């Protein structure tokens, strides 16, 4: 940490500021080696990558046009209708591109490693599965590959940062290095990071992870067929998925139960067992993760953005601006959230906005606009503290614009706090979302779209029977995710502020060396 | 030290030279707006002075006397409540928007605390470069070169450009702060206690650096400090401040060797003498400065002044009694600033107020065994009764009527006290009263 005044060769090299491009040109090997692997990694999943990007663009288009539509709708309803038209056209075009992108072959797709097939005889062999393996094994290979890929991508991204730090960054030390180094031995934070990565991977790769697809198994089971080996007749038959589901229900009694890691009578493998209506719980759960994470991340983004803007303005201008922020925050906190959710659900019934993300978008908006006061209150303190620093005065003394001062001189100090409180608050939103889906009746995610809360609600009656898995597994997922998010927040706090925890130990150590 | 001034070969700025900054009737009050608000804190309460181009004006005074506020107002970090600050003839308190931003290039500030004045998340290069970026000076390449030059001229290495403030010591950080203040090539720099947070060994280096830089860049400094020795070392002229008012302003050497104002006398007497054999007359100021919310009506220094003018009726009182009376008045003044609770107000109304009965102890402490005349004692007891009844304000008025002199009732003017245009804020500079020197001299002889 200490400044060394010795003029090292590296220092002399760094005397001239160069662009990153020039620095890479001067010493290309590490960058090339890293990029080759990175390109290969993207190449493996190129189709999915592009499709995912298009999905984000699509969502953004819908969100922006929706916002315009609502504002314009206040003035003239006819104009807002034409905007809906534009929205549908744009979204339709993007959907076309997306299906093209989705048709590109990728390594981690169900087409490359299929697990849905049928036995041709009482003892196999399996038809239509990957290498003729059992569906369970084929599925396990695919799931393991997905997680291996995700782990390697995370590792490679981190390695990229390390290569940049070692070879291309002009500062040999930055305050952020210490933060990362402190995470190094922090098991609790690492647990949090791993949990967050596991669930993010689950959400991102949901379609590839499930043993079947939502469309086939949950959304429209009576439009899809499957082949299976009928043990009684000794021949391969065809059935509708819906009928197969009907005969694979988990209802608690001996006959009607398909538990975790078992096959049903139709040769389908269920890693988490089936739901009360015979649908596959694993597919349901991973899709539920996707919905839960998207909605809670979106509401957190909305709440965080409002909170950070308000807290910076509060802290920089103080006085009347601060008072206005306090009043509006208090006003919003005084609205009962559940009541508001009920009202919004009623008011937007049948409105297209309630169909975006199967109702999740509307929920995200409500959670975002009602959730910011909590975050704002948490980051206002740090923001006020930073605003008292003399470098803010210094910036003012040479005429820096307030917006730039807030961004450059205040935001970097407030953002970590937002990350901490945000990651902890996001757990609350996930629980609230699940609770709404648990209550059902117009609240939460519209059925039949998967939602963890609904699975728990379905399985509630069967907790004490052999169909315990229906409620228990989604419940455990929620608990693990929320705990992981809290660990993540805790870990970041310890990393950015080493005095917050373990300070006593350090003091003791310092005392020890002194004595 | 006077040799040093000559060595620098500068023309005497009080005599020659053109005015760069002219401060007229400057006031800065905090709070006090609104019907129910407390009276405002009068941090700077009517200050007039000028700063000549190329000189270093020192601003000294005890903590809380308003010197930092004055410095910050001069660079428009605070908005003046009243009065004007003319910079090269333009009143900068009137500037807004673009004009203010343009003007800011001319005046910069170096902060006291090097820990707090640098943003830890930016590299040194970014920090020093920021003013240049804000004012879009030259091309990015020019700015970079300029920053490297600046780092070199404050005694840092160019390769420090990519380091972070964490990697530097306090003295180095202060150098970075100085480099940032100089980036825009200002004419005028406010140095707000630039060395008081540093080790003694580093202080001298920074002071020398500041002197060198002044020569190199033709800078005009306002050097705020409470370290009188540092001020003597670096400043051409000195202004002494007390409770928001300038008490004395004049050439450094002259002011240090022959102070005119009673406050300057006592302040200078506090400089420790390195030679233990030298006998030095130390003037210890009694009590604490009054609250800036409620400064005395007359001279700000009146409550603690060792050379306070006495009313004619009490001329003959001995110093000890007079001192006791002043302390007693201070206690009453503090009491009168306390707001009573509703309950105590009701008690006061029905004559059962007892909260202030401890004033008797104060009286006993101050006056017992000092051989105070009965006449004085009668006044003191009358005032104490008012306090006991719950009306310290009445006691304050009562004591005022009896013991107030011109110092308590009238603000003095700034009197010219030497041929070099030194100014001092004291009633004793008029012919009507005995001079400060003779009063203080008599006191020290008497003891």
Structural topology:
The complex is a heterodimer of chains A (515) and B (447).
Chain A: H1 9-14, H2 20-26, H3 29-44, H4 46-75, H5 77-103, E1 118-119, E2 126-127, H6 135-168, H7 175-184, H8 187-204, H9 206-209, H10 214-219, E3 225-230, E4 235-240, H11 241-246, E5 262-263, E6 269-270, H12 281-317, H13 319-333, H14 337-347, H15 360-387, H16 390-397, H17 402-439, H18 452-459, H19 469-496, H20 503-514
Antiparallel strand pairs in A: 1-2, 3-4, 5-6
Helix pairs in contact in A: 3-6, 4-5, 7-19, 8-12, 8-19, 12-13, 12-15, 12-17, 13-15, 14-15, 15-17, 16-17, 17-18, 17-19, 18-19
Chain B: H1 2-7, E1 19-30, E2 41-52, E3 56-60, H2 67-74, E4 82-87, E5 90-91, H3 97-104, E6 107-110, H4 124-134, H5 140-153, H6 170-182, E7 188-192, H7 200-217, E8 220-225, H8 228-234, E9 237-242, E10 245-251, H9 252-257, H10 262-268, H11 319-336, H12 342-349, H13 359-367, H14 374-388, H15 392-403, H16 406-409, E11 414-416, E12 423-425, H17 436-446
Parallel strand pairs in B: 3-8, 3-9, 6-7, 7-8
Antiparallel strand pairs in B: 1-2, 1-4, 4-5, 9-10, 10-12, 11-12
What does this structure look like?
The complex is a heterodimer of chains A (515) and B (447). In chain A, the strands form three sheets. Chain A has a two-stranded antiparallel sheet. Chain A has a two-stranded antiparallel ribbon with strand order 3-4. A two-stranded antiparallel sheet of chain A has the order 5-6. Among the domains of chain A are: 214-279, no CATH class; 289-501, MetI-like fold (Orthogonal Bundle). Chain A has 20 helices and six strands. Helix content of chain A is 68%, strand content 4%. Among the domains of chain B are: 2-106 and 186-268, 3-Layer(aba) Sandwich (Rossmann fold); 312-404, no CATH class. In chain B, the strands form two sheets. Chain B has an eight-stranded mixed sheet, with helices on both faces. Chain B has a four-stranded antiparallel sheet with strand order 2-1-4-5, covered by helices on one side. In chain B, α4 packs parallel to α6. The longest helix of chain B is centred in the middle third of the chain and has 18 residues, at 200-217. Mean pLDDT of chain B is 86; it is low at 1-15. The chains are: A mainly alpha (515), B alpha/beta (447). At the A-B interface, α1, α16 and α17 of A face α3, β6, α4 and α6 of B.
């Amino acid at each position: 940490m200490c400044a060394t005044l010795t003029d090292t060769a590296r220092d002399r090299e760094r005397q001239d500021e160069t662009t990153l491009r020039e620095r890479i040109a001067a010493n290309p090997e590490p960058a090339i080696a890293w990029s080759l692997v990175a390109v290969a990694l993207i190449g493996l999943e190129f189709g999915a990558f592009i499709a995912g990007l298009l999905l984000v663009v699509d969502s953004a288009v819908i969100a922006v046009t929706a916002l315009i539509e609502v504002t314009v709708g206040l003035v003239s309803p006819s104009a807002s209708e034409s905007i809906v038209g534009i929205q549908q056209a744009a979204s339709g075009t993007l959907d076309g591109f997306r299906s093209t992108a989705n048709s590109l072959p990728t390594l981690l797709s169900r087409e490359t490693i299929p697990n849905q097939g049928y036995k041709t005889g009482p003892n196999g062999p399996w038809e239509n599965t990957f290498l003729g393996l059992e569906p369970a094994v084929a599925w396990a290979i695919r799931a393991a590959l997905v997680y291996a890929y995700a782990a390697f991508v995370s590792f490679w991204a981190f390695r990229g940062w390390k290569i940049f730090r070692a070879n291309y960054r002009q500062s040999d030390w930055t305050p952020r290095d210490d933060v990362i180094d402190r995470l190094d031995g922090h098991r609790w934070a690492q647990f949090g990071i791993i949990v967050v990565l596991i669930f993010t991977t689950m959400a991102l790769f949901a379609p590839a992870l499930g043993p079947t697809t939502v469309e086939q198994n949950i959304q429209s089971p009576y439009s899809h067929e499957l082949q299976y080996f009928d043990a009684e007749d000794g021949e391969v038959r065809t059935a509708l998925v819906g009928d197969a589901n009907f005969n694979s229900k988990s209802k608690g009694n001996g006959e009607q139960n398909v538990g975790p890691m078992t096959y049903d009578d139709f040769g389908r493998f269920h890693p988490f067992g089936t739901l009360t209506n015979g649908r596959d719980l694993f597919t349901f759960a991973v899709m539920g993760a996707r919905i839960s994470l998207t909605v809670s991340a979106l509401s957190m983004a909305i709440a965080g953005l409002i909170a950070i803007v308000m807290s910076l303005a509060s802290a920089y201008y103080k006085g009347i601006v601060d008072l206005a922020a306090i009043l509006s925050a208090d006003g919003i906190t005084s609205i009962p959230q559940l009541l508001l959710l009920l009202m919004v659900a009623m008011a937007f019934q049948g409105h297209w906005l309630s169909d975006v993300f199967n109702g999740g978008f509307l929920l995200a908006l409500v959670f975002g606009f009602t959730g910011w006061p909590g975050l704002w209150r948490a980051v206002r303190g740090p923001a006020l503290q930073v605003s008292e620093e003399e470098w803010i005065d210094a910036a003012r003394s040479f005429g820096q614009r307030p917006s730039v001062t807030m961004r450059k001189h205040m935001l970097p100090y407030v953002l970590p706090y937002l990350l901490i409180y945000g990651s902890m608050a996001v757990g609350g939103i996930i629980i609230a979302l699940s609770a709404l889906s648990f209550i059902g009746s117009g609240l939460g995610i519209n059925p039949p779209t998967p939602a963890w809360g609904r699975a728990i609600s379905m399985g509630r009656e069967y907790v004490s029977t052999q169909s315990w898995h229906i409620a228990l597994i989604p419940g455990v997922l929620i608990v693990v995710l929320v705990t992981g998010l809290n660990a993540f927040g805790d870990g970041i706090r310890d990393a950015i502020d080493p005095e917050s925890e373990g300070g006593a130990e350090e003091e003791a150590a310092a005392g020890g060396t002194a004595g | 030290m006077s040799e040093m001034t000559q060595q620098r070969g500068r023309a005497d700025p009080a005599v020659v030279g053109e005015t760069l900054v002219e401060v007229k009737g400057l006031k800065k009050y905090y709070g006090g707006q609104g019907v129910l608000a407390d009276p405002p804190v009068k941090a700077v309460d009517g200050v007039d002075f000028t700063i000549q181009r190329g000189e270093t004006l020192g601003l000294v005074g005890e903590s809380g006397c308003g010197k930092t506020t004055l410095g910050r107002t001069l660079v428009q970090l605070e908005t003046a409540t009243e009065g004007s600050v003319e910079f090269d003839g333009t009143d900068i308190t009137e500037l807004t928007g673009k004009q203010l931003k343009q003007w800011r290039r001319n005046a910069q500030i170096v902060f006291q605390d090097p820990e707090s004045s640098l943003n830890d998340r930016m590299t040194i290069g970014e920090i020093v470069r920021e003013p240049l970026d804000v004012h879009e000076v030259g091309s990015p390449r020019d700015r970079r070169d300029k920053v490297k030059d600046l780092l070199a001229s404050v005694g840092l290495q160019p390769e420090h450009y990519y380091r972070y403030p964490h990697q530097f010591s306090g003295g180095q950080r202060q150098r970075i702060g100085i480099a940032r203040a100089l980036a825009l090539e200002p004419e005028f720099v406010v140095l707000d206690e630039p060395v008081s947070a540093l080790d003694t060994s580093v202080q001298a280096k920074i002071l020398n650096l500041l002197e060198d830089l002044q020569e190199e860049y033709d800078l005009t400094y306002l050097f705020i400090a409470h370290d009188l020795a540092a001020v003597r070392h670096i400043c051409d002229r000195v202004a002494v401040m007390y409770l928001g008012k300038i008490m004395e302003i004049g050439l450094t050497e002259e002011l240090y060797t022959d102070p005119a104002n009673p406050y300057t006398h006592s302040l200078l007497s506090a400089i420790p003498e390195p030679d233990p054999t030298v006998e030095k007359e130390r003037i210890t100021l009694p009590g604490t400065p009054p609250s800036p919310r409620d400064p005395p009506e007359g001279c700000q220094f009146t409550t603690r002044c060792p050379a306070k003018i006495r009313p004619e009726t009490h001329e003959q009182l001995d110093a000890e009694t007079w001192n006791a009376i002043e302390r007693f008045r201070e206690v009453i003044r503090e009491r009168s600033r306390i707001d009573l609770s509703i309950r105590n107000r009701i008690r006061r109304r029905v004559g059962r107020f007892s909260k202030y009965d401890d004033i008797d102890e104060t009286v006993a402490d101050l006056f017992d065994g000092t051989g105070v005349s009965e006449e004085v004692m009668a006044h003191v007891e009358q005032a104490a009764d008012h306090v006991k009844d719950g009306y310290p304000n009445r006691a304050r008025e009562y004591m005022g009527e009896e013991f107030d002199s011109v110092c308590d009732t009238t603000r003095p003017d700034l009197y010219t006290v030497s041929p070099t245009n030194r100014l001092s804020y004291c009633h004793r500079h008029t012919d009507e009263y005995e001079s400060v020197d003779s009063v203080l001299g008599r006191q020290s002889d008497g003891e």
